Structure formats: structure tokens, C-alpha cells
Amino acid sequence: xxxxxxQDVIERTYGERDRERGVPSTVAWLAEExxxxxxxxxxxxxxxREHEFADVLAWVASLANQMDVDLTAAVQRYATGCPRxxxxxxxxx
Length: 93
Prior knowledge:
The chain is an all-alpha fold. The chain has four helices and no strands. This is MazG nucleotide pyrophosphohydrolase domain-containing protein.
């Protein structure tokens, strides 16, 4: 699934409820999911890590939807590599 499709699915599935919850609560949920991802990275199984990565991406998509941010456009800053030096790998010191 690409980012545009993810944003669309998240919007259709959770958009109304997430907007009612609001941006501050969405940020809190995202932060909680990042914490769960950190724990899964440290101590979890591959399946647990995949689950938590998916949850983090879903909350990022929800937040982006609420903030009217197109994630596909946003990630273009990395299209040529490092956003500062444009090198792959990064050549910044």
C-alpha cells in the first residue's frame, strides 16, 4: 500500500472519529504508539514489531489527514537523499 492509499483508508475508516478526538489527542495516541514500537524493537517478536510499525504509520496518517498534509508530497524532501546535502549516503559532517 502506498502513502496516498494509506491516508485514504485511514480517513474513510477513522477520519470522523479522529477529527472529533482532535489533534492534541491524536498526537498523544501517536506518542503512545511510538513507545509501544520502541518496546517491540527492544524486546518483541518480528510480528509484534510489524504490528507496532503499522500502528505508528496509521496514527501518522490520521494526524496528517487532520492537518491537511499530503504524506506523499511531504516525503519528497527525501527524494534525492539527505535534505541538507542531497547525497546518498548523507555526506553532512
